[in-house]
UniProtKB/TrEMBL annotation:
<keyword id="KW-0472">Membrane</keyword>
<dbReference type="GO" id="GO:0006614">
    <property type="term" value="P:SRP-dependent cotranslational protein targeting to membrane"/>
</dbReference>
<dbReference type="Pfam" id="PF00448">
    <property type="entry name" value="SRP54"/>
</dbReference>
<keyword id="KW-0547">Nucleotide-binding</keyword>
<dbReference type="GO" id="GO:0005047">
    <property type="term" value="F:signal recognition particle binding"/>
</dbReference>
<dbReference type="InterPro" id="IPR000897">
    <property type="entry name" value="SRP54_GTPase_dom"/>
</dbReference>
<dbReference type="InterPro" id="IPR027417">
    <property type="entry name" value="P-loop_NTPase"/>
</dbReference>
<protein>
    <recommendedName>
        <fullName>SRP54-type proteins GTP-binding domain-containing protein</fullName>
    </recommendedName>
</protein>
<dbReference type="GO" id="GO:0005525">
    <property type="term" value="F:GTP binding"/>
</dbReference>
<feature type="domain" description="SRP54-type proteins GTP-binding">
    <location>
        <begin position="156"/>
        <end position="169"/>
    </location>
</feature>
<dbReference type="GO" id="GO:0003924">
    <property type="term" value="F:GTPase activity"/>
</dbReference>
<comment type="similarity">
    <text>Belongs to the GTP-binding SRP family.</text>
</comment>
<dbReference type="GO" id="GO:0016020">
    <property type="term" value="C:membrane"/>
</dbReference>
<keyword id="KW-0342">GTP-binding</keyword>
Length: 177
């Protein structure tokens, strides 16, 4: 998230609390895709098992954001390509590794209404979502709109947020919901 004021500092604080590394924009690499590429390089060099990429907002009607997210997905696929082909000019080019990213999760606020389904449809069409994270379940909202999103798009709710602490992001258990 290179656009929201304070986003990098917030992510750095969370990474510090969790005891993990955080890779943010440098002075010469501020586009989200270039930050993503740099983070991938670091993850590969350090032999990390997991890389989380946090992006800005969830406004599906923001076309530049949608295009940037699609570009980031292509960057991940290209950077993690394991094979290459020869193009008509005789140049070796990497095949896109369509098996990555392994997860593309949309975070939805439990208090969102009908807009959640409309946005999720667009994001799913554009990015191929693999699941949902439902946040703000610590208040009075119960996330009914997210259940509709999950059913209509066939996307599982993977995690729920029930507070603001690290331990408050939990695996989703449909039985207790």
């Amino acid at each position: 998230d290179t656009f929201r004021a304070g986003a990098v500092a917030q992510l750095e604080q969370w990474a510090d609390r969790a005891g993990v590394d955080c890779f943010g924009p440098s002075t010469d690499a501020t586009s989200p895709s270039s930050v993503c590429y740099g983070a991938l390089d670091k993850a590969i060099q350090q032999k990390y098992d997991t890389l989380l990429v946090d992006t800005s907002g969830r406004l599906s009607n923001n076309e530049p954001l949608t295009e940037e997210l699609k570009k980031m997905k292509r960057v991940i696929q290209k950077r993690l390509s394991v094979t290459s082909t020869t193009n008509p000019d005789g140049k070796q080019v990497p095949d896109l590794n369509t098996n990555v990213p392994h997860e593309t999760l949309l975070v939805l606020d439990a208090a969102q209404g009908r807009m959640a389904l409309d946005s999720a449809k667009i994001w799913h069409e554009e990015l191929g979502l693999t699941g949902l994270i439902l946040t703000k379940l610590d208040g009075s909202a119960r996330g009914g709109s997210v259940v509709a999103v999950s059913r209509e798009l066939g996307l599982p709710v993977k995690l729920i947020g029930v507070g603001e602490g690290m331990e408050d992001l939990r695996d989703f258990d449909p039985e207790s919901f």
